[in-house]
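Technical note accompanying the year-one report. For the benefit of new consortium partners, we illustrate the data format agreed upon in the data management plan: each record pairs a sequence with a structure-token string. No post-processing was applied to the example shown here.
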Amino acid sequence: MINFKFCVLFFMSAVIFSCVGNNPVIKVPEAAQRSFVSRYGTDKEVQWKKTGENDYQAVFQSGHQPAVAFYDRNGNWLKTETELKSNELPLVIVETVKNAFRGSSISKSFQVEKNSGENTFLISLKRGNRVREVELSSGGVILSDE
């Protein structure tokens, strides 16, 4: 699981770099580009990032929300993380957070679609000065709490 803080920092970095136009040009494997087009179509503006030795991220808009699709060098789609507003979260997720983390408020949330077919939700919760990241299954089961 990619650390939730990394995801937030990645989105902030993408916005900053796109504003200053200082993005380095990277060579994205054709297989990854084809896989992206096959999954999301050609009407998306996409910004590619290389992460690590063999992994790539495609940053794009999914509807009105920022999203990041993750690919390996062979073009295999790994997962997509889409930012959600708290009012777009499924009721079971909201209820689990409300009951398990009383007094906390949702500051960021992402829906994670994985190549395994599993969908999870990454939630950043704030209570006072404390921030915690929680991953929940689509059924509202808490998978991790950092």
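Partners are asked to follow this layout when depositing records. The mean pLDDT is 86.
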